[in-house]
Amino acid sequence: MLVQSPFPEPPSLTDANAYNVLLNRPDQREWKDYTLHIDAVTGRKRSFYEFRERVQDAAAALGGPVTEGCLGLSAEEDEMVGIISENSSDYVVLVQSLLYLATPFALISSYSTPFELAHALKLAKVTTVFVQARLFPLVLSQAKEAGLSRKKIFILGGRIRGRKSFSDMISHVKVNIPVYENKVFVMGKAEVRVSPPIDTPEGIPITLAFLPMHHSYGLHAYCFRSFIVPHTYIIFPKWNLAAAMKAIPKYHITNLTLVPSVVHQIANHPKLNKRDLKSVKHVGCGAAYLPKELADKLLTTLPPDVELTEGYGMSEATIAALTLPTSGSLGGRLKRIKGCSGVLLPGVEARLLRDDGTEADFDEVGELYIKSHNVSPGYWNNEKATREAFDNGWLRTGDKFTIDRDGYFFFADRAKDTLKVSGSQVAPVEIENVLLAHPEGLISDATVAGVSGGRTSDEKVPRAWVVLSPAGKKKGTAEVIKALESWHQESLSKYKWLRGGIEIVREIPKSPTGKTLRRILVDKYEKRIHKRMKSKL
């Protein structure tokens, strides 16, 4: 059963530089200047025209000749720029300047441990890094392991003595490089009209920007989509509930881009005052499934006319494939259904397949496959993963849905082993590898799977089952668990920690072909927990 989007086909793809599509459109020449970014910590403002001029100066600094004090980056060279930082206005500037130059870049989590950072740098084959000052020692410590030249590590935000920063590069260009030099890039700097920053005019949406920009949700929301219409963003380095709740009334926030774990925190805030949220007009939630009960609880805290827009997507699908339509979409033909993940976005096709590969019927659970121009052709430098996830243009999402006869999709479950914790993906195999890599060799086998215990009823948390090695048996059960707890917490980001615990078993159940049967272990655990809870009632 092939399902198509109810929306009209989107325009043909353009071959224009992404910078021109986002920041050099004809309609933007008619825009009056406005405040684009406000730093939530310092209060510093940056207007749209200030921002655009800084992007072009940055592009000149990054792409200009080395002989003139620039970096000499280009689309032709075998470059990969890594960005490791918390959110900031200059993070967006750097992203846009690299798009301007058509130079590829890799966004690396600012929460990375040394182990994760070295792996990411090597996987992406990063040649140049821009890193937040406080994270500089971490990058420096892993440079040799990742094959990264220390001379190609630069600072994005903050200062490190003896180390050139992104701001230094831009200042050098403004002083030393003539305006006409920018014409070698996508557009001439002389075309930009620069005005002093002004206060945000009434009517412009104001968004609380706290999602990590290294995450595809934050990247699209704050670095790409932010230039469709005039819009102001209050940029937080990272999520802070107390600061966010103060910022909403202070800046008269109109738009919130949330993930389910943040929805849970706001909806259950002990000191929540509905008057503090009276400016909010629109709420969007993504990155993981939002249970209907939690969505309803959040809506009770908001003005009665606020709509909560949900969606479904993946980084592999350029963030989105499904969206819950707003009221009145397509002349009122589309409706909002609570608990629904939405309908297909323009240009997206879908199929639902049973476990045996046959087509699922309406209202029957099946794994979602999607096809569209916005679907990635595969994973870079990973043919095995590409073959497993992509089939003749179809992307296997690893998530199970049902679809009704009107084309509305309803989330059912995750088919893949990958977990979603607080909106971030957690790969069990990564945790397994860390446990098995313990320097004392305490275990001979391990498997990780999701079990109940998350912030929402459907969210799973990682739990490990391990088999003791001779060294582990000698050390003793309690000491092994203590050692593995400490080891994996040192090696992995907090959201990957084994919040579901560690259990020692005699063996890991496997199929005749050697595939780990995680479901057997999970079912035993869940039944045990259910029985324990029932006995307490």
TrEMBL record:
<dbReference type="Pfam" id="PF00501">
    <property type="entry name" value="AMP-binding"/>
</dbReference>
<feature type="domain" description="AMP-dependent synthetase/ligase">
    <location>
        <begin position="206"/>
        <end position="380"/>
    </location>
</feature>
<feature type="domain" description="AMP-binding enzyme C-terminal">
    <location>
        <begin position="430"/>
        <end position="515"/>
    </location>
</feature>
<dbReference type="InterPro" id="IPR025110">
    <property type="entry name" value="AMP-bd_C"/>
</dbReference>
<dbReference type="GO" id="GO:0016405">
    <property type="term" value="F:CoA-ligase activity"/>
</dbReference>
<dbReference type="InterPro" id="IPR042099">
    <property type="entry name" value="ANL_N_sf"/>
</dbReference>
<protein>
    <submittedName>
        <fullName>Acetyl-CoA synthetase-like protein</fullName>
    </submittedName>
</protein>
<dbReference type="InterPro" id="IPR000873">
    <property type="entry name" value="AMP-dep_synth/lig_dom"/>
</dbReference>
<dbReference type="Pfam" id="PF13193">
    <property type="entry name" value="AMP-binding_C"/>
</dbReference>
<dbReference type="InterPro" id="IPR045851">
    <property type="entry name" value="AMP-bd_C_sf"/>
</dbReference>
